[in-house]
Amino acid sequence: MHYYAVIDTNVIVSSMLKADSIPWQIMRFIEEETIVPLLNTEILNEYIEVITRNKFDFEKASIEKVISTLKEKAIFISKKETIEQFIDKDDIVFFEIVLSARSTMDAYLITGNMKHYPIRSYIVTPREMMEIIEKDKKSIKNISNL
C-alpha cells in the first residue's frame, strides 16, 4: 500500500538529527516506497536551503542521500493556490501541494508544526502518520487471515 504525502521541512531535518526517531522512520518509509513524497521545485529548494545551513553541520554525503532519495521517489506536482492565512508564509506551498494532490488522490501533509497549518484531517504529525500506516497494516493482515 502506498501513502502519498507532502513532507514538511521540519520532518526532514528531524529525521537527519536523530536516527531511529519517528521522523527517521518516515524517511525509511519513503526509501521503501510505502510513503511517496509529493513536492515541487519550491519545496525541494527549501529542503536544500535548510539542510545545508551551517548550524546543522550535516555531512555532505547525508545531505546528498536525503535529497537524491526524495527526488528519486517523489511525484512532482503543481500547486493549487489557496486563500488560507498562514503564520509562516514559507508553509503555504506545502499546503498548496497537498490541496492539489487531494484533487486526484488521498494525500497527507506530514508536519511537526501542526500550529502552522489549518486543522484538517489530512494534516498529520509524523506519529499520526505512523499510526495510520500501522492501523492499515493490521487491517490488511486481519483480512488476509480470513
Please describe what this structure looks like.
This protein has helices at residues 9-17, 22-31, 41-51, 60-73, 92-102, 126-144, and strands spanning 3-7, 35-39, 75-76, 107-110, 123-124. It is α/β, with parallel strands linked by helices and 146 residues long. The chain has a single domain (3-144), classed as Rossmann fold, CATH 3.40.50. The protein has a five-stranded parallel sheet with strand order 3-2-1-4-5, sandwiched between helices. Helix 1 (9-17) packs across helix 2 and helix 2 (22-31) crosses helix 6 (126-144). The chain is globular. The mean pLDDT is 92.
Give the key terms:
Rossmann fold, five-stranded parallel sheet, alpha/beta, 5 strands, 146 residues, 6 helices
Give me a quick take on this structure:
This protein has 146 residues and is α/β, with parallel strands linked by helices. 51% of the residues lie in helices and 12% in strands.
Which secondary structure elements does this structure contain, and how are they paired or packed?
Layout: E1 3-7, H1 9-17, H2 22-31, E2 35-39, H3 41-51, H4 60-73, E3 75-76, H5 92-102, E4 107-110, E5 123-124, H6 126-144
Radius of gyration: 15 Å
Shape: globular
Number of distinct beta strands: 5
Order of helices and strands: EHHEHHEHEEH
Instruction: Work out the helix count.
Output: 6
What class, by secondary structure content?
alpha/beta
Helix percent band = 40-55%
**CATH architecture descriptor name:** 3-Layer(aba) Sandwich
Q: What is the topology, as strand order, of the major beta sheet?
A: 3-2-1-4-5
Average pLDDT, all residues? 92
N→C terminal distance:
19 Å
CATH class: Alpha Beta
What is the fold-level CATH name, i.e. the topology? Answer: Rossmann fold
